[in-house]
Amino acid sequence: MLARACAVAVALAVFAAQAASANTILHVDGATGTDGGGNTCQSTPCKTIQNAITQSESFNDLVTIAVSAGTYTEDLSLGALDSGLTITGAGSGANATGNTVITGITGNPTINSTTASSLALSHLRIVNPLGDPQPIINSTSTELGLTDVALDGQGTGVGIDAGADMSMTGGSITLENAGAGAAFVTSGELTVSGTPISTNSGTIPAIVGAGPISVTNSPITMSNPGGSATAVLGGPAPITIGGSPIDVKGTGGAISAPFTLTMTGSAITLEGSAGTTPAIAGGGPGSSVSFSGAPIDLQGKASALTTTGAPVTISAAKITLDNGANAAPALTFSGRDSSLTNVTISGAWTGPGVLDTGSIRIVDSSITSGPSTTAPMLDVSDGSASGIGSDLSIIRSTLEEQSTTTPGVIANNMNVAVVSSALLGGLFAFDFEVLNGKTRSATLASSTVDAGMLGSRDGGPIQSVLAHADNTAGSVATVTAEGSILVEAPASRRVGTNGTATVNCSGTEVPGTTQAAAGTDGAINCATGASGNTSTSLLSSIFANPATGYALNPSWSGVDSVPEAAISLPAPFSDSSTDLLGNPRVVNGIATCQPGVRDKGAIELTGHQGVVPAPAIASPASVLPGVAGTFTGSAANVPSNVPLTFSWHSSDGGSGSVARLTHTFVRPGSYTLSLTVTGAAGCTATKSVSVPVHGLDVITVLKISPTVFVAAGSGPSVTTTGRPRSGTTISYRGTEAATTTFTVQLGKLGRIRGGTCRVLTGKHLTGKRCRVFLSVGAFSHTDTPGSVSFHFTGRLLGRKLPPGVYRLRAIPSDPVGKGTAVFAGFTLKP
């Protein structure tokens, strides 16, 4: 027993003595280096990287292996003793003259890491050879960090198989073989920033993640036209994708997200015409999908998005379904408070537009069917029994169904408000159905409803609005039209004597064509007449050009004829002060550009001309310093035949006069970008957005000086200046404004037992030596870009750290995500 205790004491003493020389740098040069002969790779470089790894195991502090430019044909194997190791090269380019290229040997991963804690790789190109089925990098390290590393997979293996958390900044992943695996397979948290990803895989996704996934400014391309894989396959954890377009040339989808998905500024293109996988397959209850600021283009036979029980938020998006044989819905989802804002859905497909269960809000959007569709553009159903709501609002939007054999909008047991919108086409432009004993109401305010052949009054059976009480249990369906134009007559139907169906009109144009009186008819209270209707102005007097559009005739006395007080929407719906195209509702006249009496109907174009633009800016979620960002200006509310001028101004002094501005921000920060759009008659408006300019923070040159010091007797962990003879200075450089978390880890000598590095005790004197670092606490520091320096007292949680060998782990965090961990060692003496 005494002999064992002595052995432990000697081993710990050697460990402490070696660790005092923190941050050892070993050198490798394939052209001039030598292996063997006692060379430790310090004063004289080694020839191979693997030999340097072996030599690093004799140092118990942090080790960096600096590898010179050249080609290194070897597989690298790292074990528990290599924890905390950093391997850095001369660059990640393909030319070995100025870059470090590691080419693997068939049969093994090019880098196989079973380190007990962290491994950092930087400025390297790593290649696995043709036909190699192994991963390029196989890692069970608890932290794997790559910076400016290019992975070139010519074999059939995975790019990176990570058993824990990992991050990758810069560099690239290219998997060239048609039988390639995934670019990433991770079970922990995955963070990718500024890393283009391209895989030629057929059936395996580019990213397979079981933990949280964050992808920023990293385009993803599935380049195999014969492939069927989805690009990103998530697990039960959030997925965040920003500024990262996804292009699938095969028949697969873009994302399968069983948990929460947030996607901004990332276009989706599905090129396979035979594809039947949705672009986005969302999750179920408890998850949600948010997509904004980019188009979705589908050339296959699938939906743009599907979810079950998950709310959906889509904004500033153009969804195009190109395949005329596609009968799938454009969007299918259910969930409380879903919304479409500034969304355009169009194309040649023949399926429905939006199928939804639960509350949904559609604002400033357009859904236009293909030329021969037999499906509604909007079909929504009550979700109150499942707790997901029964409210539908359509505000300043156009829904156009080009078929005359099916309704354009179907609202089933919903409370509805249609405000400043146009419901066009269909057997009924608006089919309001109430059943199962429910009481529901719909209000049409300042809207235009035109069923059947657009621009003409169609006779029965085509009618503008149908109030439909569809059973005998006492259902009540009430439609109220306020300040609107019903181009065809409304209708009301009921089944059984207990159902009630009613259409009421106030300040609304209604044609003289009426429904036939019958026992199944409901009530129509729109004016006097045989069935409650009265003949009003001819269609040609209302519209300036009814054959080709819906511009109101400025000479028609009914254009501006509805006072604001005449419009009264029931709770929880809100009103709109503009028409469908965003124009202020003005007193009849030319180019007044002033608010006034409410227009009747939804739109006002020709004649008034005073279209106040509603500028919109399509902007990436963030841009990198020194990298050009593209900002697209538009004013969708202004007619296409009205010329627009654009004027950009950025708070860093940038300017432009085109619709699409390309601008480079030199320094990180938050900038204001303003767009002024001017249309006809001098009507002008300005829109501003905040542009975050940052990437993922990268810490370099982490130093502790001195590396051996005494902890202060009192005070906090961090101070601006140090006390004499105690504490140390921590300095480094960062690329972004960030908060850096410093974890203090106590180094212990251990032995491998059962595949795990365990702290050395009298019971564990056998087995291979290893190092283990145990966390004893943490502190944080708020950083500005550039050089950072502060004093660390050697205290945590109000107490002095005991003497020993320590490692400091630094992880920066900024709005893009968590950066790569860096390390530095120090020793506290008594």
How would you summarize the topology of this molecule?
Layout (H helix, E strand, L loop, with lengths): L1 H18 L4 E5 L20 H8 L6 E5 L2 E4 L2 E3 L6 E4 L11 E4 L7 E3 L4 E11 L8 E3 L3 E11 L6 E3 L2 E5 L2 E4 L8 E3 L3 E4 L3 E3 L7 E3 L3 E4 L3 E3 L9 E2 L5 E4 L3 E3 L6 E2 L4 E4 L3 E3 L9 E2 L7 E4 L3 E3 L6 E2 L5 E10 L9 E4 L3 E10 L6 E4 L2 E4 L2 E3 L9 E4 L9 E5 L2 E3 L8 E4 L2 E5 L2 E3 L3 E7 L4 E7 L2 E3 L12 E7 L6 E7 L2 E2 L4 E4 L5 E7 L16 E3 L13 H4 L17 E3 L35 E2 L16 E3 L10 E6 L10 E6 L4 E2 L3 E4 L5 E10 L5 E10 L5 E7 L2 E2 L8 E2 L8 E7 L3 E16 L2 E4 L9 E15 L2 E7 L2 E2 L2 E2 L3 E11 L2 E2 L3 E7 L2
Parallel strand pairs: 1-2, 2-5, 3-6, 4-7, 5-8, 6-8, 7-9, 8-10, 9-11, 10-12, 10-13, 11-14, 12-15, 13-16, 14-17, 15-18, 16-19, 17-20, 18-21, 19-22, 20-23, 21-24, 22-25, 23-26, 24-27, 25-28, 26-29, 27-30, 28-30, 29-31, 30-32, 31-33, 32-34, 32-35, 33-36, 34-37, 35-38, 36-39, 37-40, 38-41, ...
Antiparallel strand pairs: 51-52, 53-54, 54-57, 55-56, 55-58, 58-59, 60-63, 62-67, 63-67, 64-65, 64-66, 64-70, 68-69, 70-71, 70-72
